[in-house]
Amino acid sequence: MSRSVPRVPAVATPFLLALTLALTLTACSGPGGAHGTPGSAGVADPYFPKAGNGGYDVTHYALTLAYTPDTSGTSGTSDTSTPLTGTATITARATQNLSAYDLDLKGMKVNSLTVDGKNAPWTRTGQELKVRPASTLPKGKTFRTTVRYSGTPETLTDPDGSEEGWLPTADGALALGEPTGSMAWFPGNDHPSDKATYDITITVPKGLQAVSNGELSTERTTGAGRTTTYTWRTTRPMATYLATVAIGHYDITRTTTKNGLPVYVAVDPREAAASREVLAKIPEIMEWEEYNFGPYPFSSTGAIVDRRGDAGYALETQTRPFFPGAPDTATLVHELAHQWYGDSVTPKTWRDMWLNEGFATYAEWLWSEDHDGDTAQQTFDALYKGDYYDNKADSDAIWAFPPANPTSAAHISDRPVYERGAMVLHKIRQTVGDARFYDIVQGWTAAHRYGNADTADFTAYVEKMAPGKDFSVIWKNWLYGDGKPARP
Ligand code: TRP
Ligand code: ZN
Hints:
- By secondary structure, this protein is an alpha+beta fold.
- Helices cover 26% and strands 28% of the residues.
- Among the domains are: 56-249, Immunoglobulin-like (Sandwich), CATH 2.60.40.1730; 346-479, Neutral Protease Domain 2 (Neutral Protease, domain 2), CATH 1.10.390.
- It is globular and about 60 Å long.
- Mean pLDDT is 93; it is low at 1-32 and 74-79.
- It binds tryptophan (TRP) and zinc ion.
- Zinc ion (ZN) binds next to α5.
């Protein structure tokens, strides 16, 4: 609307002309008299061009959800079933004079939408929910969008074939968001570059639990005793893909680490026996990771363990990593390491995934080295020689593409991002020695705590921290180069 050219009658009296101009100005200007343009439908991510949206920066999500697992036996396929109802209040700051803007939301029915309390029209195309506020939001203004929505949230399939979004489980449901699954269960700016704080309130039938990120601030009986409402609070910035809710029956264990950090662990009772020993290591792993990576960035930790078939992978959901079935120690070390590398320091785009997975994988190698297992050098050598995996296809897969440049969205979780990413870190360690390496590893998380960083930020940081050292061959052959580097 604000883009349309003012229509001036062909034969206009001065009065009509003035009136037309005045109306046009009111229609497309905010308090500052600014003309707005629509925010872009996507933030030009090289792998997920429609993910996220331009023109604003979210500071806070307040999500109020009510979930009733479908027990009717029709598995939620009917259009009229509404297992999930939600209200999302999204506080954001306009980064341009904004006449319209998009939120990402896939599926679900939008029932109403307001901007700063006033009804606003919206349209939907694919994952884009386009909002037209009544007047242009001037650059710098903080505004609130409230979306009421309901329906059966979708399970989405990633380009790599894995499932994300909303995953029904035997006794409830599970929300996992990497890379673009959060849009299945709440509207927002679904891109890692826009981090925000969260309050997530979930009402579930009495007898079920709802676990999420951060700290549980209240748990109360609601709905005349028929429901329980849990409110979780995330006070440190979190990327949308790291937000989670897990609804079901869980054995809950609340402890603290030696430093007094709360540990909240939720385990599906069927996984309890198999999980007990490994999850008891969380405090010890946290201490080891703090010693190696620097102060833990968040105010609680823990884990969520569901059943093996509930998801196809573990995920570093912020403060409370998710595991499909009892994890092994290496996987627990990996997901907890992501709290520093990925969750606190988050990639600017999905191209920078290796900064997450390379570090989390290298954390596994370091853990092994420090606990009487293979040294990182041994792991590196085995991968280079090709006898780390017992088949050639897996061994060769490491060299399929350079870690800093996955071939496509379908490959951002492939071997080169994980193992070859870790090999890049090991090459840096070989170049600078252990003392400087740990300075880099800790300094990097301190320099970008709660923020975003990309590969260029990382290479510049390493060079700054090791003056006089030459990394050009590592960057050229190991980080950006095609194929297997000629020398280890
Ligand atoms: N990040 C997860 C891990 O800890 C793996 C993962 C799950 C993933 N879903 C993904 C990676 C989607 C890339 C894209 O290793
Ligand atoms: Zn990982």
